[in-house]
Design goal:
By secondary structure, the chain is an alpha+beta fold.
Length: 143
């Protein structure tokens, strides 16, 4: 819970300035008028954050686009212990239903399965994924 609260603080700072543990996704999440935003936090295994970033850079981002997963942004902590092993990112979907369909298609994609397997020949890259859907506030510049 502390890392989720820390992530929300990070996001608040980012909004002002311009991982699997998954919290339940219900039909009530997401706004009827707007997008569903999903915060994901990846805790990499020791020494594997560079490989996680390379996999996103070289494969995952393209596959996200292929499956309708809109990338909002990626961040790593600037200081502290988490800067060595943590990746934060936000993706967006038009609805919870679209989110579920996109993740299912992505996870089942043979190209993703190959990229994941190829990147993990020397061990699993990610030890924990935390995921939560978020609704923008009425005063958020990003909706």
């Amino acid at each position: 819970m502390q890392s989720v609260l820390r992530a929300l603080c990070v996001l608040s700072v980012l909004a002002v300035g311009g991982a699997i543990v998954s919290l339940p996704v219900s039909a009530a999440e997401g706004t009827a008028k707007g997008k569903v935003f999903e915060l994901r936090i990846y805790k990499a295994n020791p020494g594997k954050l560079d490989a996680v970033n390379a996999r996103f850079r070289d494969h995952t981002c393209r596959l996200f686009a292929k499956h309708g997963i809109e990338i909002v942004g990626f961040w790593t902590p600037a200081t502290g212990e988490e800067s060595k092993d943590t990746l934060y990112y936000i993706v967006a979907f038009p609805s919870v239903e679209a989110q579920k369909a996109a993740w299912a298609a992505f996870k089942d994609d043979p190209e993703w399965k190959k990229a994941k397997a190829d990147s993990e020949t020397e061990g699993v890259l990610v030890q924990k994924v935390t995921s939560m859907n978020m609704n923008p506030t009425d005063y958020s510049p990003l909706k």
